[in-house]
Design goal:
The complex is a heterodimer of chains A (113) and B (113). Chain A is mostly beta strands. Chain A contains no helices and 12 strands. In chain A, strands 2, 5, 6, 10, 11 and 12 form a 6-stranded mixed β-sheet that branches. A 4-stranded antiparallel β-sheet of chain A has the order 3-9-8-7, with no helix packed on it. A two-stranded antiparallel ribbon of chain A has the order 1-4. The radius of gyration of chain A is 13 Å and the shape is globular. Chain B is mainly beta and 113 residues long. Helices cover 0% and strands 50% of the residues of chain B. Chain B has strands spanning 4-7, 10-13, 19-25, 31-37, 43-51, 54-57, 64-66, 76-78, 87-94, 103-104, 108-112. In chain B, strands 2, 4, 5, 6, 9, 10 and 11 form a 7-stranded mixed β-sheet that branches. In chain B, strands 1-3-8-7 form a 4-stranded antiparallel β-sheet, with no helix packed on it. The relative contact order of chain B is 0.34. Classes of the chains: A mainly beta (113), B mainly beta (113). Chains A and B meet through strand 5, strand 6, strand 10 and strand 11 of A and strand 5 and strand 10 of B.
Chain lengths: 113, 113
């Protein structure tokens, strides 16, 4: 079946630091890949997505590239802000889980001023 | 404004009682989903419905029940058979079962003592 593995957290950074959160996946076929963000006490919001190999999703300064050869979809941001503090979830859909999302365990990001 | 509402935000129940969590959407989406979130874990799918009057079990359906009598509503009942019901419950919807882009409600935190 499908699975998603994210880097262990929590991640703590200073404002304006570079962010990378690693995500690798296992799936059959050609899944779509997503990053969702969850701010404290709230539901999840879609941050960005990529639907085929070599696609780059981007939003609010965050980027992730769909790498089929390494089965990865790492999230990056060049300069984080305090307001980026949240939990980030990598997810995939497709393959054997038609119509359903499979989530990673989430990575807590804390950004200090 | 279009969106998904979940009520209440916090819910407290005694062990042995059934409890129903509300989820309503006005996005005209066909598909709806229920997830459970526990600390340090990703989201796990409880039930999903791709169309009115039809629903399927997700990965952790035991101890839960749902109904889908209206397109806008997908209530989740946590029964006394659920061994560890205390968790954060998230409802989501998507345009159709073919659309992987899901929109999430703000969640309900259920505490059972």
């Amino acid at each position: 079946g499908n699975s998603v593995t994210q880097m262990e957290g929590p991640v703590t950074l200073s404002e304006e630091a570079f962010l990378t959160i690693n995500c690798t996946y296992t799936a059959t076929g050609y899944p779509s890949l997503f990053w969702y963000v969850q701010y404290p006490g709230e539901g999840l919001q879609l941050l960005l997505k990529a639907t085929k190999a070599d696609d780059k999703g981007s939003n609010k300064g965050f980027e992730a590239t769909y790498r089929k050869e390494t089965t990865s979809f790492h999230l990056e941001k060049g300069s984080v802000q305090v307001s980026d503090s949240a939990v980030y979830f990598c997810a995939l859909a497709g393959g054997t889980s038609y119509g359903k999302l499979t989530f990673g365990q989430g990575t807590i990001l804390t950004v200090h001023p | 404004d279009g969106g998904i509402t979940q009520s209440p935000k916090y819910l407290f129940r005694k062990e042995g009682q059934n409890v129903t969590l509300s989820c309503e959407q006005n996005l005209n989406h066909d598909a709806m989903y229920w997830y459970r979130q526990d600390p340090g874990q990703g989201l796990r799918l409880i039930y999903y419905s791709q169309i009115v009057n039809d629903f399927q079990k997700g990965d952790i359906a035991e101890g839960y029940s749902v109904s889908r009598e209206k397109k806008e509503s997908f209530p989740l009942t946590v029964t006394s058979a659920q061994k560890n019901p205390t968790a954060f419950y998230l409802c989501a919807s998507s345009m159709s079962g073919l659309s992987y882009e899901q929109y999430f409600g703000p969640g309900t935190r259920l505490t059972v003592t």
